[in-house]
TrEMBL record:
InterPro entries on file: Acyl-CoA_dehydrogenase, Acyl-CoA_Oxase/DH_mid-dom_sf, AcylCo_DH-like_C, AcylCo_DH/oxidase_C, AcylCoA_DH/ox_N, AcylCoA_DH/ox_N_sf, AcylCoA_DH/oxidase_NM_dom_sf
Domain Acyl-CoA dehydrogenase/oxidase N-terminal, residue spans: 38-151
Species this chain originates from: Sodiomyces alkalinus (strain CBS 110278 / VKM F-3762 / F11) (Alkaliphilic filamentous fungus)
Protein name from the UniProt record: Acyl-CoA dehydrogenase family member 10
The UniProt record lists the keyword Transferase: no
Gene3D superfamilies xrefs: Acyl-CoA dehydrogenase/oxidase, N-terminal domain, Butyryl-CoA Dehydrogenase, subunit A, domain 2, Butyryl-CoA Dehydrogenase, subunit A, domain 3
Acyl-CoA dehydrogenase/oxidase C-terminal domain segment(s): 273-421
Cofactor(s) listed: FAD
Segments crossing the lipid bilayer: none
Length: 455
């Protein structure tokens, strides 16, 4: 679909909520999407960002209790129809947006770290909800999915382990052994939201149910583990670069003879990798979408610092030094490039499905966190010493971006995937370049020129 004057010049698309979107994206936005994107922008700008310090204040002394403000905002967002916007329109439970349309919303959500949670569009809930919607039976959906959609329950995804290489999920070793109508779980896990927050309802856990299966991709099973099941112990909170990320946080867990009913298995025994790939496709780029919004806000802070009349080293504004002018230009170029990569991934998923979009998804997962880290680092540099302190949100922004380089798989694994696929294309290029050489040889004879080979 090519952009038309009527779609791109629509007055509803002229405001700041749409200013960074390329014309081809604006042309694909439905009336519903335009309405939701504007509503999300108004919500984040007017309801979330002005309350950031209130949220921090309500966490002081109550680190592992969800602040009353979060509950208040979630109720309001739900009333305004801003809940679960991430769920693609091919699901019956979806509010009706495509992946591309939601990516425009998610970028705006990223401007405030916890804004997505007010709209039930935060990790790990987004991936878990899509997983349950895609793979669960009607009975399981009623019991586990609907409370998540309603915002009355909370979940976490439990995959990473401390005793194996986290970049190779086939090594996941926590034991999931069937005994009659139950599965018994024994082992250790890392990450997954903190049990200390009593609002956490259940884990979606990936474990090894058949360690001797000849196909290593069929050894694992995914099942739902209620958080109040006896035998689960949280050993400690895991800080991320010094931040505890309360009130959800991350943890280290021990499972000692944890028993769950067999009906809690999702899709079937041995099908965990099928589920994991279905979950991680969209979820991987949700982080990237939000990171762009976060990085845009960091960029805005850098612009403010560059033009602060109180800050004049050697009598010049910080933004008047050539090095900083070039810094700002490079940030703008890289931000816009990141956005195009993510929008392409979202559009590819819409047009061809998550599996066909895996390369574009991997490209987003590699590029965006790394470039976001780099840009935010430059913004901190422009702020000098203050940029490393709580005077700005920049250190927290950088930490989140650095975390996403590892979350949902380390970027090295995604680079390997992309590089391996690219290597497969070499043979076709070899044939093409040989054809150039063969044609050149014939032309050299035709024109009476000497044929030169560099083989």
């Amino acid at each position: 679909m090519s952009p038309t004057p009527s779609s791109v010049d629509n007055p509803a698309l002229q405001g700041p909520a749409f200013q960074r979107l390329p014309p081809w994206v604006k042309a694909k936005l439905s009336p519903l999407a335009i309405e939701k994107i504007q509503a999300v922008y108004d919500w984040v700008e007017n309801e979330c960002i002005p309350r950031e310090q209130i949220m921090k204040a309500q966490l002081e002394g109550r680190r592992w209790t969800t602040p009353p403000l979060m509950h208040e905002l979630r109720e309001k967002a739900k009333e305004r129809g801003l809940f679960n916007l991430f769920l693609p329109n091919h699901f019956a439970e979806s509010p009706g947006l495509t992946n591309l349309e939601y990516s425009c919303c998610a970028e705006i959500m990223g401007r405030c770290y916890w804004a997505a949670q007010t709209m039930n569009c935060h990790a790990p809930e987004t991936g878990n909800i899509e997983l349950l919607a895609k793979y669960c039976t009607p009975e399981q959906k009623k019991k586990w999915l609907q409370p998540l959609l309603d915002g009355t329950a909370a979940s976490a995804y439990s995959m990473t382990e401390p005793d194996v290489a986290s970049s190779d999920a086939t090594q996941i070793g926590i034991s999931v052994r069937r005994e009659g109508d139950e599965y018994v779980i024994n082992g250790r896990k890392l990450y997954g939201n903190c049990l200390w927050n009593k609002e956490l309802s259940f884990y979606i856990l990936m474990g090894c149910s058949d360690p001797n299966h000849p196909n290593k991709w069929s050894r694992h099973t995914t099942l739902i583990v209620p958080c109040n099941t006896p035998g689960i112990t949280q050993v400690r909170n895991l800080t991320i670069m010094g931040y505890d990320h309360a009130p959800e946080g991350h943890g280290e867990y021990r499972y000692d003879n944890v028993r769950v009913p067999a009906e809690n298995v999702i899709l079937g025994e041995g099908r965990a990798f099928e589920i994991a790939q279905g979950r991680l496709g969209p979820g991987r780029i949700h982080h990237c979408m939000r990171l762009i919004g976060q990085t845009e806000r960091a960029y805005e802070l850098a612009l403010l610092r560059c033009n602060d009349p109180r800050k004049k080293p050697r009598g010049k504004l910080i933004g008047e030094f050539d090095s900083n002018i070039e810094r700002i230009a490079q940030m703008r170029l890289e931000l816009d490039a990141m956005r195009l990569v993510v929008l392409n991934a979202a559009d590819t998923m819409d047009l061809h499905g998550n599996k066909a979009g895996k390369r574009a998804i991997a490209q987003s997962k590699i590029l965006v966190p790394e470039v976001a880290c780099k840009i935010i680092d430059e913004c901190m540099q422009i702020y000098g010493g203050q940029g490393l302190t709580q005077h700005t949100p920049l250190p927290e922004m950088w930490t989140y971006a650095r975390f996403v380089r590892v979350a949902d798989g380390p970027d090295a694994a995604h680079r390997h995937q992309v590089g391996r696929e690219e290597m497969k294309s070499a043979e076709a290029f070899r044939k093409r370049h040989q054809a150039y050489q063969d044609q050149y040889k014939k032309l050299a004879e035709q024109y009476g020129e000497k044929y030169i080979s560099f083989d």
